[in-house]
Amino acid sequence: MEYIYRGEKCGWRVAQLALAAALVSLLAACGGDSGSGSSTTTGQAQPEKAEPQHEFKALGGHKTLLVQLDGVAPEQIKKVQQEQAAWKSLGSLRLLRSGGYEGTDSEQMTLPLPSWASLLTGTWATEHGVALSTYSEQSALQVPSIFQWLKRAHTETVSSLAVSKTDYSQVLTAEHQAGFIDHFTVCEQADECVTRATEQALLDGSDFIVAQYSAADNAAREHGLASSQYQLAVQRSVQQISELLSVVSARQQQADDEQWQLVLVNSYGLDEFGTATGAQFTPNKTGWLLSNIEYGAAIPEQPVPPLKALDYATIVDVTPTVLAGMNVPANDSFAFNGNDLRQDVQLSQLRFNYDPHTYALTLKWRVLAGSAGQDPVQIYRNGNLLATLDSSVRQYLDRDVPAGPEGTLIPLRYELRVGQGRASVNAQVLPPPSLYASVLDGLRIYYPFKNGQANDVKQVSNFSAWNTTHSGATWVSEPAQLPFREADGTQALVLDMGVHQHGGKAGYKLSMPNSDVTLNPNVDAFTIGFWFKSNGVCIGSGSALIANKNYNSGNTNGLAIGLFGGCELRFNTGGGGGRDELGGMGTTPDEWVYVAIAVDKKNSRLYAYAMDPILGMQTKQMAMAPARVAAIGGSGQQLMGFGDDTTGEYSSRYNYSGVNSFADLAIWDRVLSVDEVRSLFASRHPISSLLP
């Protein structure tokens, strides 16, 4: 594969610097081993100079120099570019967002250590685990660094690291000890040592080299950004990095096939006092990137309104970008929160929200694209394709989170792909509960609608259409159209209420001779529950989902659940010339909602449940007047209408022509607990799954 860096194709040349003469007096690394194998060096401020080196080792191939320059603001770099030809030839400065996105799972403190970890892992602190300002064993890296990714992909790769901040080195010590970092130099606040160690790595031909400078950051913190000490520290850092660029230029003059990625970066910002506070103010979360990498069209030199500069690239984009330039292929399951900045499609602000009541996970994202962006959005979960969406979609609801041991977090890796753009996020969530076996207790009537048959498992009731010539009923068996994870033959009944135009009746009726819990004086309480879905036709005069009465008035004796304007559910009981009613509970059109009404006749209480994958868990309860409790048996006919009332003519009276779907209809002789109802919804298993 051919990689094109800014400037000359496959052979970018750093402009000849006046500092090139410094090559004559190249200094050795801080006592570091220049041979093969792994080495660790601790350096001091003034290392001894080595004999001049005139020949470079290991010429040719893809190589990378990544320099982290702490404490230097973007304005300082722009000024340097005006004065230094080699820096100017690296192209336009791009700002990088640090600190993640406020109010999302990606948000982290804009401090040096978490930012350093994000820079070298391509993930935010919620994944890499380094969240605080100081290192501890408890905050060790939880994910591979760029060094490990590179070594696993190309075992022959030689890598070198030189840092001046001790805690920066501690983050990577374990990877060095595991053999992923070959040469490891800790310079203890001595930038000159970093330069010498990095020059030695360049001479020896290391393939991947990381250098970290902190003198400017130290001077800013101790003396302020306006101080002469800070300005001098910046000048020294610029001079030292220019020396490194000179060495790269000299290597390339001897090797036409040596291709260098040059990456200068700062992964966090300072406030006006020269302090890294960790806050989410713009100066603190503004890093920068200067590189010879050819960015994709989605990363313009100047932001395009309404987007701002920090809406494009982030510090977690650096690792996947550099790895792509080192011919490290993306795994089947993309492991980074960031993007490869070379691509014309960038996936930005990928975030998730997990509802612990509905056990549904919502993904949201932004797509940045140049001339591309018309490719469909593909969503993967744990490496498997979950959904393919239209290119315009920016949100996805995963309502089928995998099951797992209750109370134990399960890891879910979500990846988005749009064309060549890729980004991912890791979610640790509590799995949905299993269907409680207790829902079999007190089950009096149950219709699983197995194989398109309306048969009561308990064999005590009958279910039939009001309109005998035009039932308006169809059966749905496709798994994608059902509310269940595994239907096992269970189907859904779809009722077209517009059939009232052919004979005046619509819906179904449940006949319960000698089994009507609303009339039985020996039954102190009951619950009626079912899955429901509307097609979004919700009128102000309402429609009856269920009713054991003539629902022409809510004051009529009996109970009903009505669907009104805005697809609002109202749970109604009437009697004695009045009503007790719970309303204001929403349903989302074209989404399966679990709906239940419960009446405790003995204690005079009404309960309502509506569990919607979008609106969440909605529960209400209220005291019932004695007149309503006494009249709860409705018409006294031992009938209950589904999709209509006990006349079958409610839809005709109000010209309602919606399409409503029902599944897993059940009636109990007790009040189900909230947890039981939630398990019916969240487990997404039919009650029949518990039956032998």
UniProtKB/TrEMBL annotation:
InterPro entries given in the database record: Alkaline_phosphatase_core_sf, ConA-like_dom_sf
Species this chain originates from: Alcaligenes endophyticus
Domain of life: Bacteria
Protein name: Concanavalin A-like lectin/glucanases superfamily protein
Family annotation (PROSITE patterns): PROKAR_LIPOPROTEIN
Lineage of the species this protein comes from: Bacteria, Pseudomonadati, Pseudomonadota, Betaproteobacteria, Burkholderiales
A Pfam family: Laminin_G_3
